[in-house]
Amino acid sequence: MLAKIPPVTRALLLTNVGIFLLQLLIGPQLEQWFALWPPGTNFEPWQLLTYAFLHEGFLHIFLNMFALFMFGTPIESYLGARRFILFYFVCVLTAGLTQQTVAMFQHSDADTMGASGGIFGLLLAFAMYFPRARITLIFPPIPLPAWAFVSIYGLVELFQGVSGSEPGVAHFAHLGGMLGAAAMILFWRSKDART
Prior knowledge:
single chain; Rhomboid-like fold; two-stranded antiparallel sheet; 8 helices; 69% helix
């Protein structure tokens, strides 16, 4: 099954799982070095990328890796490996920068972990490149076109981030990943139109 997954998506899946196993062995020290800490706490510049390889538990990594497999596979196949890896890490970076900005305004000292910023970028890309593809939720099992599903999901993330109704989740990182995705796709469309 792994052989059918495009190379960058496969490498990201294996790397995330490998680092999660390392987290289980090493524990909090790995998080002190590589999770994304707000400025003025334990922040180091490399954390703007490394946080995306750490996860807070089995459910967290399972859901992120399942989404990476589901959406990374068609997006990498569409973009090609070189554009895909650049796209993914731009989404991770913009997610991290967005989360840092919000953390400064909220005077938060909580760390951020997880691939969700990159995943939300892939979600937005899927909606933009395959807007009519159907996505079905587990509950309720209602199939929606990708553009509608991702639009609703983005609005829910915005509401939860602003209202603080789901603390402990980096909603603004998710939105930052989507912002990075939109910027990259619009840049590429503009560049491709000129050539």
